Amino acid sequence: MESLIEIQAPDKSGNHFMGFLVFVPGLPQPGQHTQFHLIDGQQRLATSSILLAAIRNIARQVGQQELADEIHEDYLIHPRKKGEQRYRLLPKERDYDSYLALVTEHGKPTGLMAGALSYFEGKLGSHSDGAPDRLRQVFDTVCQRFEFMCATLETENAYNIFKSLNSTGVPLGPADLIRNFVFMHVSPEDQDEFDRELWAPLENRFARPDGTLDEERFSRFFRDYLMSKPDTGYVPPSRPSLSLSLSTRPLDSHRVS
Fold first, then answer.
1. HSE-up of 170 (CA within 13 Å, CB side)?
2. Distance (Å, rounded) from C-alpha 257 to C-alpha 255?
3. Contact 115, 109 (CB under 8 A)
4. Which stretch of DSSP H or E encloses residue 39?
5. Which is it for strands 254-256 and 36-40: parallel, antiparallel or unpaired?
6. Interatomic CA distance for residues 216 and 238, integer angstroms
7. Residues 79-88: what's their mean pLDDT?
8. Closest listed residue to residue 251, CA positions, set 159, 175, 165, 155
9. For the chain, what is the mean pLDDT?
């Protein structure tokens, strides 16, 4: 949020680089928008959508209904579509209900998404207090000066490309890499059900009292399991994922249309 406000200063030029978005296209359906599975950059795009929802909400509060409608109907939903086709972004299963409550304003968002929305609304409210035109400036900045680098992968082995794209990034932990390997064997269309029915219950067995995953215990479990197999051999404590030939990014995908 600070960067967003900073680049609006008169002496600032250029754009704010937001990072990579990597997509895999879904199967085209006649009469429908083609859906894309967002397999890298989920947090970046979801955060941007939450920011837009916050601008919309504050615009309504200060009587800028035209701006609010523009954001809602052009950036958050497809106003003439029905069902899931109505939403331009659909998060994975665990964030689905909270995100839809946030976008539709029916129900109450929870968790991190609710916290992010509240944070943005607080910052935007104080920033535009007494100067409602600043909301339009913020919106224009988000649309025109937030810069993403996008890649659409049309290859069966997207994970080797991931490895090259992210080779200079911050290394993910063994638990993330293990999750990669498992989810890359599940088709994007089946990932929500797989996560809900199988993977989430497994992770819940290694949850801390606050509900977050104890990644050390989780990766240690897989290391012990791998070394129990006669053909695996020794697995270093910090790298159980190497024995699974993993890539470098989680594959739980958001859908974008």
1. 2
2. 7
3. no
4. strand 36-40
5. antiparallel
6. 9
7. 87
8. 159
9. 78
Give the three-state DSSP class for 150. Answer: strand
Question: What is the reported pTM?
Answer: 0.66
Tell me the three state secondary structure of residue 98.
helix
Q: Are 240 and 223 in contact (CB under 8 A)?
A: yes
Residues 6+ apart with CB under 8 A from 39: 22, 23, 24, 158, 162, 188, 249, 251, 253
**Listed residue (137, 49, 53) closest to 90, CA to CA:** 49
Encode pLDDT of 114-138 as tens digits: 999 999 999 888 877 777 788 898 9
- Among residues 31, 163, 186, 178, the alpha carbon closest in space to that of 93 is found at 186
Kindly report the three-state secondary structure assignment for every residue of 58-86.
HHHHCCCHHHHHHHHHHHHECCCCCHHHH
Q: What confidence tier does 242 reach under pLDDT thresholds 50, 70, 90?
A: very low
Q: Which residue has the tokens 């897989």?
A: 222
3-state secondary structure of 88: coil
Between strands 16-25 and 254-256, the pairing is unpaired
226: closest CA among 249, 242, 207, 214? 242
* DSSP assigned state of 154: -
